[in-house]
């Protein structure tokens, strides 16, 4: 009874208890008379009532769940748009492996290939990398095996992601390399609502044959509070910098 009150509410419980009694007995007086005259049947009466209440409890719970599903409207169009947005913005898993391979090659790290180049192996990181990266102080010469294809992934061959130690090492090496660069600074006067430092990145995308697919500039601005925003590259040259 207490569980029914918790699930359905006291008012609803008392209403259908009355319905069950009326269905099984003509009136409450008949029930009392039956219990007094045939006292030996009282346990059976109680058992039948409990069975009936349990059945009604299950029916009402199911009905309430169906009504709740009906009331909870699902905006399929919004869900589909959000799914598409996440799909487009998600970084392909192969990109992690490609970036790691590229940086390791630039650093002259020896890599071995197998399975027609689909699986790569680094037996041991060079000493100059181990000594320059603080996070590698506990490095014990572990071998890294990784791939850019899901079908080659197993317990010994990793499909790299943002949390993999090798990819984190890749980012660390990139950061250290960028810190060595000498960047040119230019001061320009444009109509902006606040002071900011703007970094311009040249992005060049090519296919497997080397054919250029896209070339563009990415304008990233740092506000005084440290927040990073992107700027409209066309607006930058038209002295109207705001993008989003």
From TrEMBL:
Name assigned to this protein: Uncharacterized protein
Domain of life: Bacteria
